[in-house]
């Protein structure tokens, strides 16, 4: 598919710079997340466009965390779009990955995907394929913001009422790395019961996405009830930006304001 | 290091959702729904999401158990099947075929379920057959 990506991965693998490359491959008629370990075995490498641009993106960062936890001394390569790069920047600030042990191979998203995602930055800092296109402001958020409070509440109540409490939004999330999850905390959530409490369940997660969500949209894509979670978390990110001037994953030196309990450290 | 994503089908029900099992050095560590599957299109229910947890569970039964003197004891398949067949016959002879009921599973194949109901109806002689997916 992308010769530029293949060439870069081949270079990284054959030089021994990386132990493996976490990317996507075409096999069994599907697009699968895959760890490439052999420089001569990259024929099936793809970037995740089966029927439409970026329609088969996978939580590669989440898989990377599994790999680096098991092999902390190894360096891995990984396919990144703008969102994935933001994810790795944020994960490094939370000490979940070592940026010195990651080789990113970037691709810029096409306009079509940037529009579908309403992505503010649909490209990583450096990329080997694709063309940089401008960020898109979130119309979905603006639309809901025009509603009166009651209508807005009704809208979300209706959306949340479709939830089957599969925890898929959390399970697919490349930023959900906590050992203990609030959504499994009996003090907050009635675990083992359906339907979920509305809006407690969803707002608990939304609050936890504040300063954490990198707007990849995998949660919305994984939701069997098509709840527009991405729109909700975009709004949460806007609030954090407005209140603290912080957007997750844009500046590696900046930690999430919600990292600090009881005010900034001295 | 051996890291694989293995495409497979959910065993929990008959929908047939596809997902990748993440396998690191021979251990199953995670489930990732398959986005290009026409069945589930990258989505799963809570049971599917947790398939990887039961595969290596120490609580899984690996051998038939028979209660002997009040204690569940591991026995061979031959012994378990002989015991079951004998007791089914005894109960049927003493109380009739409709004194028995059979519960099959959504977690086996269509063909196995067909065979099972055939066994109940043709071999035992009762229509008392149901399955665990009657939710």
Report what the structure shows.
The complex is a heterodimer of chains A (266) and B (135). Chain A has helices at residues 3-14, 60-70, 82-93, 111-117, 139-145, 149-160, 168-172, 200-209, 218-222, 229-244, and strands at residues 20-27, 30-36, 45-46, 76-80, 102-106. By secondary structure, chain A is α/β, with parallel strands linked by helices. Chain A has two domains: 3-117, no CATH class; 139-253, no CATH class. In chain A, strands 1, 2, 3, 4 and 5 form a five-stranded mixed β-sheet that branches. The mean pLDDT of chain A is 94. Chain B is α+β, with helices and mostly antiparallel strands and 135 residues long. Chain B folds into two domains: 3-55, ADC-like domains (N-terminal domain of TfIIb); 65-131, no CATH class. In chain B, β6 (102-104), α4 (110-124) and β7 form a beta-alpha-beta unit. Chain B is flat, with a radius of gyration of 19 Å. The N and C termini of chain B lie far apart (42 Å). The interface between A and B is medium-sized, with 35 and 25 residues.
Strands, helices and their partners?
The complex is a heterodimer of chains A (266) and B (135).
Chain A: H1 3-14, E1 20-27, E2 30-36, E3 45-46, H2 60-70, E4 76-80, H3 82-93, E5 102-106, H4 111-117, H5 139-145, H6 149-160, H7 168-172, H8 200-209, H9 218-222, H10 229-244
Parallel strand pairs in A: 1-4, 4-5
Antiparallel strand pairs in A: 1-2, 1-3
Chain B: E1 3-9, E2 18-24, E3 27-33, H1 46-49, H2 51-55, E4 65-68, E5 71-74, H3 77-95, E6 102-104, H4 110-124, E7 129-131
Parallel strand pairs in B: 6-7
Antiparallel strand pairs in B: 1-2, 2-3, 4-5
């Amino acid at each position: 598919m992308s010769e530029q990506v293949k060439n870069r991965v081949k270079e990284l693998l054959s030089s021994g710079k990386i132990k493996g490359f976490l990317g996507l491959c075409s096999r069994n008629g599907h697009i699968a997340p895959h760890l490439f370990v052999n420089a001569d075995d990259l024929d099936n490498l793809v970037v995740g466009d089966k029927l439409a641009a970026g329609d088969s993106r996978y939580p590669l960062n989440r898989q990377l965390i599994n790999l680096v936890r098991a092999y902390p001394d190894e360096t891995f390569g990984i396919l990144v779009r703008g969102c994935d790069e933001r994810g790795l920047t944020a994960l490094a600030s939370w000490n979940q990955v070592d940026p010195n042990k990651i080789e990113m191979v970037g691709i810029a998203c096409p306009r079509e995907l940037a529009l579908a995602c309403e992505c503010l930055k649909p490209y990583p800092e450096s990329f080997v394929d694709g063309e940089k296109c401008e960020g898109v402001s979130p119309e979905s958020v603006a639309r809901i913001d025009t509603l009166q409070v009651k209508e807005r509440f009704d809208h979300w109540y209706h959306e949340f009422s479709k939830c089957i409490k599969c925890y898929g939004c959390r399970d697919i999330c490349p930023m959900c790395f906590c050992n203990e999850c609030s959504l499994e905390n009996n003090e907050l959530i009635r675990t083992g019961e359906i339907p979920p409490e509305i809006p407690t369940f969803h707002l608990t997660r939304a609050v936890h996405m504040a300063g954490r969500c990198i707007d990849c949209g995998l949660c919305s894509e994984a939701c069997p009830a098509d709840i527009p979670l991405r729109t909700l978390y975009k709004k949460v990110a806007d609030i954090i930006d407005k209140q603290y001037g912080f957007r997750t994953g844009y500046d590696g030196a900046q930690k999430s304001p919600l990292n600090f309990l009881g005010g900034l450290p001295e | 290091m051996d890291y694989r994503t293995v495409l497979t089908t959910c065993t929990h029900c008959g929908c047939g959702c596809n997902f990748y099992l993440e396998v690191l050095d021979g251990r199953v560590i995670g489930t990732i729904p398959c986005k290009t599957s026409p069945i589930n299109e990258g989505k799963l229910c809570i049971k599917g999401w947790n398939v990887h947890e039961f595969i290596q569970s120490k609580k899984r039964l690996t051998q038939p158990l028979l209660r002997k003197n009040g204690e569940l004891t591991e026995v061979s398949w031959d012994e378990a099947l002989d015991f079951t067949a004998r007791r089914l016959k005894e109960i049927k002879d003493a109380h009739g075929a409709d004194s028995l009921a059979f519960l099959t599973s959504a977690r086996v194949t269509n063909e196995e379920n067909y065979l099972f109901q055939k066994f109940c109806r043709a071999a035992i002689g009762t229509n008392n057959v149901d399955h665990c997916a009657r939710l």
